[in-house]
Amino acid sequence: xxxxxxxxxxxxxxxxxxxxxxxxxxxxxxxxxxxxxxxxxxxxxxxxxxxxxxxxxxxxxxxxxxxxxxxxxxxxxxxxxxxxxxxxxxxxxxxxxxxxxxxxxxxxxxxxxxxxxxxxxxxxxxxxxxxxxxxxxxxxxxxxxxxxxxxxxxxxxxxxxxxxxxxxxxxxxxxxxxxxxxxxxxxxxxxxxxxxxxxxxxxxx
Length: 205
Description:
The chain is an alpha+beta fold and 205 residues long. The protein contains 6 helices and 12 strands. The protein is globular.
């Protein structure tokens, strides 16, 4: 559950200056409001870790200039910044990121090859708010991992069930593909990656 830290509006610069160096929580800035995001735990953490492991393997195998930072902030606007569960960064583009070395902040959507959010109780954030914002800055690929199947029916249909959604940029808008159960996921960036939804949502089983 997220918690509002202070409703006093702040800018992204003020937020970055405020951000604690050591904390049990993560924080994001949403329309000028600082919110506390509990660090991923349990199944959420396991799935995110599994995805990172698999992505690192395919990045190494393909020898592409991508990497996954331990932490990074994606600036959406002067009053909004998100810390995604997983971000795959295009290393050559960091030459255009003036805040990367000092603050691990990414300001240009083309610097992010893809971003991943694992859905928790606040599913509206991932399906509505962040989908719109990641789209607005031109991030080419966005994965929504709804392992609990709790997203709104308008997003995952009825009856609700665990759903892996891939949003791909086409003509400046996201087009959505959804996968469930034992369906093999078609990954736009890594088409040779052979994984089903169940393999990702139930790692180790």
